[in-house]
Automatic annotation (TrEMBL):
GO molecular function: protein-lysine N-methyltransferase activity
Highest taxon of the lineage: Eukaryota
Descriptive protein name: SET domain-containing protein
Family matches, as InterPro entries: SET_dom_sf, SETD3_SETD6_MTase
A cellular component term, taken from the record's GO annotations: nucleus
Source organism of the structure: Pleurotus eryngii
Length: 423
């Protein structure tokens, strides 16, 4: 990112009513961008304020797209935002001069409705994106045998379907625009949205990051430039003019307050909330080593994803529910009068041990990689596989203890039962 791009964004942000603390700045890093302090900063400091008028919302996106003649009926909130952002590039590439929209007094030919160009220019280019949606074929193959491999293919398929619907809407409005509205551009802005979006609930007078069925994704320019640090103490403040006695706040705005002090040259961080490495790779493009929030989804029974599924964390956190679910299956199939008191526990343990062992064997090797896999991607995959292995091994220990307890009861009742390590 050049100083010119950064200066252009700052000017655009300031002219739109935004505020960036004078003692922070943007610094180019391998992944794109970092926010750093220029001087020691105290705790509880408001570092960035974004007016709601600059927030990228589905409503703003719909209005802009409608100005080009698009029929937006049937497009989801995500499709609206992704198409709106993509159109900045499309309009610039085609130098489109639509009579349906007023234009800036510049040579770009981009309609005034599409005003987030300086914000979009701050985003990392495609070569810097590291979500699994941007893995090369060798990198994607390195995930085979894991849940993340299937999740990536599903996400790509969903995204292709979303783009197809949006492309059809653009084509119907203006075929000259559709030619430059590629899937690659849609994939890029979808990645920006997935990695940077906040739920619309953050814009309420009582902001929260907990999404609800009625919330939708929004982008907060400036605020979304900070990278993630787990456990970073932050607060989002939403201000409305009628709530404030002074006249310093002219428009509704959302601010990011950092509660930790920062030394000169240190990076400032946001907190995206607890997330597993699978989600970080799929949507953000980074991982945390030994991530304590790692999880794995276990599915039992059913065809085509119709069975029950549970999310299990490290140290077998949440595995009680899996055990109870499997135990219920065996107990419901048994005739209580003919079943020994240890039988259901033993059957449940044996079934889960077989299943967990198979899942462990299927996981790819997180330490040995084929050629063609970038070093930073190798690191991410290693972090992810370590977490999956750790969770499955802890669940196996849980089941082995259950089996030991069941065998102990059987032996006490006079049954001579034993299992070899390979059983």
């Amino acid at each position: 990112m050049s100083d010119e791009i950064s200066s252009r964004f700052k000017a655009w942000f300031h002219n739109g009513g935004g505020r960036i603390h004078q003692h922070i700045d943007f610094k180019p890093v391998d992944s794109g961008l970092a926010v750093v302090s220029l001087k020691p900063l105290p705790k509880d400091l408001n570092i960035i304020t974004c007016p709601l008028s600059l927030v990228v919302t589905p409503e703003l996106s719909r209005d802009a797209l409608s100005s080009l003649g698009l029929n937006c009926a049937g497009l989801t909130e995500k499709q609206l935002i992704c198409t709106y952002l993509s159109m900045h590039w499309v309009l610039d590439e085609t130098s489109h001069g639509s009579s349906k929209a007023s234009k800036e007094n510049s040579s770009s030919g981009i309609p005034l409705h599409f005003r987030h160009g300086p914000y979009l220019s701050m985003m990392p280019d495609q070569s810097r994106l590291r979500t699994s949606l941007h893995f090369n074929p060798q990198e994607l193959d390195a995930l085979k045998g894991s849940n993340l491999y299937a999740a990536t293919l599903d996400r790509l398929s969903d995204m292709q379907a979303d783009w197809t619907a949006c492309h059809a809407a653009v084509m119907a409005a203006d075929a000259s625009l559709a030619g430059n509205f590629t899937f690659d551009s849609y994939l890029m802005v979808s990645t920006y949205l997935a990695s940077r979006a906040f739920p619309s609930s953050i814009l309420s007078p009582n902001p929260t990051l907990v999404a609800s069925p009625s919330s939708y994704p929004v982008l907060l320019p400036g605020i979304d430039t900070l990278n993630h640090a787990r456990g970073q103490p932050v607060t989002w403040l939403v201000s409305y003019p009628d709530q404030i006695a002074t006249a310093s706040v002219r428009d509704p705005s959302v601010s990011l307050v950092l509660h930790a002090s920062t030394q000169t040259g240190e990076e400032l961080f946001n907190n995206y909330g607890p997330k597993p490495n699978s989600e970080f790779i799929l949507a953000y493009g980074f991982t945390l080593p030994g991530n304590p929030d790692d999880t794995i989804v276990l599915r039992i029974g059913g065809q085509g994803g119709t069975g029950k599924k549970w999310e299990v964390g490290r140290f077998a956190q949440g595995f009680d529910a899996v055990w109870e679910g499997v135990y219920t299956i065996f107990s419901s199939q048994a005739n209580d009068e003919d079943v020994e008191p240890f039988a259901n526990d033993l059957d449940s343990a044996n079934m889960l041990i077989d299943m967990l062992g198979t899942l462990l064997e299927r996981l790819p090797d997180g330490n040995n990689f084929a050629t063609g896999i970038r070093p930073d991607v190798q690191t991410m995959i290693s972090h992810y596989i370590e977490g999956q292995q750790s969770i499955l091994k802890a669940a196996l220990q849980y089941c082995e203890k259950k089996r030991e307890d069941a065998l102990k009861v059987a032996n006490e009742l006079g049954f001579d039962l034993s299992f070899d390590d390979d059983d």
